[in-house]
Amino acid sequence: MRTRLASLFGAFMVCTAAYAADPPPASTQPAFTPVQREAIIKILRQALTSDPSILRDAIGALQADEEAHEKSRIRALSTDATAPIAGNPVGDVTVVEFYDPRCPYCRSMRQTVSNLLDKDHGLRLLFKDIPVLGPASDLETRAILAARNQGGYLKMQAALMSDTAQPTLEGIRKTAAGLGLNADKLAADMNDPALRRQIDANLHLARELRVQGTPVFFIGDQILPGAVDRKELETAIAEVRKHPT
To answer: CA 68, 73, 75, 79: dihedral to nearest 10 degrees?
Structure first.
C-alpha cells in the first residue's frame, strides 16, 4: 500500500509540475480535474500523517529516476557522430572530454591524454569544445573547429593550446598557414553560423550535464572532473571494459 501511495505521490508531483510549467491549451483536459486533484491531496495528506516515510520513498524514487536518466544521457555522449575524434575511431571504449582551449588545467592534460592514446589503441576520444573563459576562448575554439573542415582540428588544437600568447585573428591566420592550412578559408569558416550552433549546442549540453568547470571526462557512466592523473583515467577505462554496456 505504501509503495502504491509513493508512486501516486510521485506521479502527482510530476504531472502537477508539468501542468504549472506548461498549462495545456483550452481545448484539452488537464491531467487532473479540480475534484480529482482535491481527492488526491486529501488521500496523500491522510497517508503522510499516518506514515511520513511515504514522502521519503517518493522523493527517493524521483531521484533514482533522475539519476537513471542522467546516466542514460552520459552514455549517449559516446554515440555523437558530430564531435571531433582522436585515437581509434572504432575503439571499444569512448572517452568524452569537455574542454576550453584557454583553460590551464585542460592544457596540462594534453600530454597525459596524448600518452594514453599512444599506449591504448582501443581508445576513442571525443571532444566537446566549450569556450567558457571569455572572448579569447571563443576565438580559439572557433579556430580549432574551423580547422576541422581542412582536416586540421588536432593540429590547430595542439598549436593554440601550447601557445601562451593572447590570441588574435591575425595570429591564428599565421598559425594556420604554418600548419599548411588555408588561412582565408579558416577565417571564413570561423564565422560560419553552423559552427556557432555547434558551440552553443556543446554549451547547452554542458549545462544539462551540470559541467561546472573544465576539463571534465565522461567514461561510460563515470564522471572525472578536473586535471586527473593518468592512473585515474586508466582505472575508469578498465572498469568500462570489465562491464561493457
So the answer is: 150
Give just the sign of the alpha carbon dihedral 113, 117, 122, 128.
Answer: positive
Question: Where do the H-state alpha helices sit in the chain?
Answer: 2-21, 34-50, 53-76, 104-119, 135-147, 153-161, 169-178, 183-189, 193-208, 230-242
157 and 108 share one domain? yes
pLDDT digits (tens, 9 = 90+) for 96-114: 999 999 999 999 999 999 9
Q: Give residues with Cβ within 8 angstroms of 16, minimum separation 6.
A: 31, 32
Q: How many CA atoms lie within 13 A of 66 on its CB side?
A: 10
Query: Same domain, yes or no, for 41 and 154?
Result: no
- Model pLDDT, residue 16: 47
Domain that holds residue 219: 82-242
50 contacts: CB under 8 Å, gap ≥ 6: none
Tens of pLDDT, residue by residue over 169-219, are 999 999 999 999 999 999 999 999 999 999 999 999 999 999 999 999 999
State whether 120 and 45 are in the same domain.
no
Q: Which of 58, 77, 96 lies at the terminal end of a domain, its last residue? A: 77
